[in-house]
Amino acid sequence: MAKVNASQIRAGNVIIMNDKLFVVLKAQNVQPGKGAAVTQLEMRGVVDGVKTNERFRTTESVERAFIDEQEFQFLFQEGDMFTFMDTETFEQVAVDGEVIGEPKVFLQEGMQVRLSLYEGKAVAVQMPQTVTLEVLETEPVVKGQTASSSYKPSLCENGIRVMVPPHIGVGTRIVVYTADSTYMERAKD
């Protein structure tokens, strides 16, 4: 355990508050027009699974629990359980979809993720920052449409909708940020 500034807390970190462990689901630094900057944390209790929101001044200290973090490879999904494998020991761990949260739509077979383990139980999953997806549906290119500010909706292979530039067509592979499901660039593969 160590004290860190609230502004250093990221999604997937585990913190201790009121002698309870919480997994950070979303962390957002907010700079209001007036007053000091704050960090807004959306968290879930490790033991009871209850979600809560907390605000901290960015300079305020938060107790971060350093628990066992390891690289795992995603193998498969069965119902709402996701199975990961430790790439060194080949030990498999089943994780409930609720622990992963919204980013579970980005999981792809063979993907490397970081699992946070507390007493052998997975309490958080840190996804890669970006993922490459194929566009399945999008509107056709409109002649004369400028690429500077206009984006069009597209449906990706994992079922999420992403706003993409006009030059992106069906079958194009794109790189998407897992944190907010936004388009980054055309894939280079």
Describe this structure in words.
Belongs to the elongation factor P family. It is a single chain. The protein is an all-beta fold. It has three domains: 2-64, SH3 type barrels; 68-126, OB fold (Dihydrolipoamide Acetyltransferase, E2P) (Beta Barrel); 130-186, OB fold (Dihydrolipoamide Acetyltransferase, E2P), CATH 2.40.50. Helix content is 2%, strand content 53%. The protein is built from one helix and 16 strands. It has one helix at residues 97-100; strands at 2-5, 14-17, 20-30, 38-45, 51-57, 61-64, 68-78, 81-86, 92-96, 112-118, 121-126, 130-138, 152-156, 161-164, 173-177, 183-186. The strands form three sheets. It has a six-stranded antiparallel β-sheet, with no helix packed on it. A five-stranded antiparallel β-sheet has the order 9-8-7-10-11. Strand 10 and strand 11 (121-126) form a beta hairpin. The model has no long low-confidence stretch (mean pLDDT 86).
Keywords, please?
elongation factor; Elongation factor P; single chain; protein biosynthesis; 6-stranded antiparallel β-sheet; Elong-fact-P_C; SH3 type barrels; OB fold (Dihydrolipoamide Acetyltransferase, E2P); translation elongation factor activity; 189 residues; 1 helix; 5-stranded antiparallel β-sheet; 3 domains; mainly beta
Could you outline the blueprint of secondary structure elements for this entry?
Elements lengths: L1 E4 L8 E4 L2 E11 L7 E8 L5 E7 L3 E4 L3 E11 L2 E6 L5 E5 H4 L11 E7 L2 E6 L3 E9 L13 E5 L4 E4 L8 E5 L5 E4 L3
Antiparallel strand pairs: 1-6, 2-3, 2-6, 3-4, 4-5, 7-8, 7-10, 8-9, 10-11, 12-13, 12-15, 13-14, 15-16
Protein name: Elongation factor P
GO molecular function, one term: translation elongation factor activity
Organism: Marinibaculum pumilum
